[in-house]
C-alpha cells in the first residue's frame, strides 16, 4: 500500500511546499512533459560541465526517419513541435507488446518560446496508419488505433531497431493525421522511471481518484501476487480469487518505486471510469511529482546527482531533429511551470465507436481536429481562449514527505 504522508507537527495537515521557480533544466523537463528533460537546466546556474554531464547520458537515435523535416541548416528559432511517446516495457510479455505506445503527446512551443502546450492523443484514437516496410515484417496499412502504429512499425524487430521503426511509423501516422512534421522526438520508458524513483527514494503526489491495481497485490498469506489475469493486449480479463489488489486511495501519498510505476500504469479500475484519459492525467501528475522531488532533493545531493543523471539518461531515447540538445535547453530555459498548459482532446470526454476489426475506438471530434490545426499553425493560444474548458485544470500542489 502507498505510504501516507507525514502530517505537519504544528497543524496536523499534509505538508505542501511553497511554489518556487526551479532551475532551468527542471523547467525544460516539465515543459516537454519529460522528453529532452534533464537537459536545460542541468545548466544549474549556467554550469556547462553539468549540462554536458546530463546530455552525455541521453541515448541519441534517429527516431523520426522519413517523418522528419530536413536536418540541413536546422535552427532553434520559430515555433517547434516535439512528438513525445511513453512506452511501458513490462516484463514477461511478447515483443509486440513491449513496443506498444501507451502515451502520445504533442508538445507545442510557440515561436516566442515563452510557453509550452501539451496535447495528448488518446491511444485508442481511430486513425489511418500508412503502409510501412520495416525490413522484417511489412505492414499493408489501414484503419486502426493510433498506438498500434508503434507496434506495427516494430514487428519482427528488437532493441534500437524496434524503437526507431516503431517511432517512425507512429510519427508518419501523426503527420498524416495532423499535417505536423515533428521538429524532434523522444521515447520515455515508464519502466525506467522506477530507477529514477529508486535513486530519489520515493515520489509524493496527490492521487486524484481511488485507483485499483490490476498488476500488484497480495495473497491470503501476505505474499506478492497478481490480482487479475490480463489479456494478451494488456486489458483486464478476470479477478484471481484470494488475491487482494493494491489500492491507491484518493489523497496525498508517497509511493515507493514499485508503487509509483504501478500507479501510472493503471487504466481499467479507476474510480471515475475515465480509463486512458485518467491514465494520461496520472502520468503527467507523476512526471511533475518526480520533477518536484528532483528539484528539492536530487539536485542538492552530491551522492544522488550522478545516479540521477544516469537513471534519467537510461529512461529516454531522443531524436534532436538536427538541433543540438544544448541549443534546445538554452532556448527554452524561460518556460516555467506556470507557462505549461495541458489541453485535452475531445475536451476530456469519451467519443467512442465500435469499429469492425478494431473494437471500441475513440473518434477525434471536429473541435479536436481544429486544435491539431492550431498546433500546426501556431495559433494554440487563440484556441485556448475560445475553448477554455478544454484546458486540464491544475491539480493540487505536489506534496512532500
From TrEMBL:
Positions of transmembrane segments: 28-51
Residue ranges annotated for the Cell envelope-related transcriptional attenuator domain, each copy included: 100-294
Keywords noted in UniProt: Membrane, Transmembrane, Transmembrane helix
UniProt cross-references to Gene3D superfamilies, sorted A to Z: LCP protein
Keyword Isomerase assigned: no
Membership in a protein family: Belongs to the LytR/CpsA/Psr (LCP) family.
Protein's name according to its UniProt entry: Transcriptional attenuator, LytR family
Phylogenetic lineage: Bacteria, Bacillati, Actinomycetota, Actinomycetes, Micromonosporales
Amino acid at each position: 500500500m502507498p505510504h501516507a504522508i507525514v502530517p505537519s507537527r504544528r497543524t496536523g495537515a499534509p505538508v505542501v511546499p511553497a511554489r518556487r521557480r526551479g532551475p532551468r533544466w527542471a523547467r525544460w523537463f516539465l515543459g516537454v512533459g519529460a522528453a529532452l528533460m534533464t537537459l536545460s537546466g542541468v545548466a544549474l546556474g549556467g554550469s556547462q560541465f553539468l549540462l554536458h554531464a546530463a546530455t552525455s547520458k541521453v541515448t541519441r537515435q534517429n527516431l523520426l526517419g522519413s517523418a522528419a523535416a530536413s536536418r540541413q541548416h536546422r535552427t532553434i528559432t520559430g515555433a517547434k513541435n516535439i512528438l513525445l511517446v511513453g512506452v511501458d516495457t513490462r516484463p514477461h510479455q511478447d515483443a509486440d507488446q513491449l513496443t506498444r505506445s501507451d502515451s502520445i503527446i504533442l508538445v507545442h512551443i510557440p515561436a516566442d518560446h515563452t510557453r509550452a502546450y501539451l496535447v495528448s492523443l488518446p491511444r485508442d484514437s481511430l486513425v489511418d496508419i500508412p503502409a510501412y516496410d520495416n525490413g522484417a515484417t511489412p505492414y499493408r496499412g489501414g484503419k486502426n488505433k493510433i498506438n498500434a502504429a508503434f507496434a506495427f512499425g516494430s514487428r519482427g524487430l528488437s532493441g534500437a531497431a524496434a524503437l526507431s521503426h516503431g517511432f517512425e511509423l507512429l510519427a508518419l501516422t501523426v503527420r498524416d493525421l495532423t499535417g505536423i512534421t515533428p521538429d524532434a522526438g523522444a521515447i520515455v520508458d515508464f519502466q525506467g522511471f522506477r530507477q529514477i524513483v529508486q535513486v530519489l527514494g520515493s515520489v509524493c503526489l496527490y492521487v486524484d481518484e481511488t485507483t485499483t491495481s490490476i498488476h500488484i497485490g497480495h495473497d491470503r498469506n501476505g505474499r506478492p501476487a497478481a490480482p487479475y489475469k490480463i489479456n494478451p493486449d494488456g486489458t483486464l480479463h478476470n479477478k484471481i480469487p484470494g488475491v487482494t489488489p493494491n489500492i491507491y486511495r484518493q489523497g496525498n501519498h508517497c509511493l515507493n518505486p514499485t508503487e509509483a510505476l504501478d500507479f501510472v500504469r493503471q487504466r481499467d479500475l479507476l474510480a471515475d471510469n475515465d480509463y486512458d484519459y485518467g491514465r494520461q492525467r496520472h502520468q503527467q501528475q507523476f512526471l511533475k511529482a518526480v520533477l518536484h522531488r528532483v528539484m528539492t532533493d536530487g539536485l542538492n545531493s552530491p551522492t544522488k546527482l550522478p545516479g540521477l543523471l544516469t537513471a534519467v539518461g537510461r529512461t529516454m531515447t531522443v531524436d534532436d531533429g538536427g538541433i543540438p540538445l544544448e541549443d534546445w535547453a538554452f532556448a527554452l530555459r524561460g518556460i516555467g511551470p506556470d507557462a505549461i498548459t495541458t489541453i485535452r482532446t475531445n475536451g476530456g470526454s469519451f467519443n467512442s465507436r465500435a469499429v469492425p476489426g478494431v473494437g471500441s475506438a475513440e473518434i477525434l471530434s471536429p473541435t479536436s481536429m481544429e486544435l491539431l490545426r492550431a498546433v500546426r499553425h501556431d495559433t494554440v493560444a487563440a484556441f485556448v481562449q475560445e475553448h477554455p474548458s478544454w484546458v486540464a485544470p491544475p491539480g493540487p500542489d505536489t506534496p512532500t514527505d
